[in-house]
Give the backbone structure.
Amino acid sequence: MLQPIQEFLLCPTPDAWVQQALAHPEILLIDHANCEKKAASTALNLMYRYIGDFELLNKMSRLAREELRHFEQVLAIMERRNIDYRHVSASRYAAELRKHVRSADPEKLIDTLIVGAIIEARSCERFARLAPHLDEELQKFYESLLKSEARHFQDYLSLAKKAAGGQSIDERVRFFLELEQELVESSDEEFRFHSGVMN
């Protein structure tokens, strides 16, 4: 399940990020909840914008339902641990990737789907990196997310290839993966689920 993702991404999550995640368990869960909510929102936005593509509509509908279910599961864990769901600022990760999405379709759709694939792949990779270091409840939960996150990655990537109409998307994928690697390996001021390593 993880091998295609590890081969797709250009770098692993740094060990220092894993240590920072373990040192900030409340922020990890709060920002994880935020990520699930944003992932559902992205899928719904695609459903509203591209209403003529039945495959996209079905895959994004399923994805949105799964992400909202994950959001509910994170909230339940937070409630059991007496963690308030408070505002935390977003990391620069997704915004920096989306900054380079082209403005006109079909290129806009292709890039948006590629970015979606990369975010899902990195999320899956980070769940797998974190799971062995967590308590039993969180370990089981994060391991349970791997299958759906890996499928979301594949769905986004296959939809991007379809949107390209037979043209290769390899160059755009490589462009966004190189940008993603820079974001993952560079320094960030604050810890977040998709941040780089804190200074």
About this structure: Residues 3 and 125 are 10 Å apart (CA to CA). The chain has one domain: 17-195. The mean pLDDT is 97. The two ends are 32 Å apart (CA to CA).
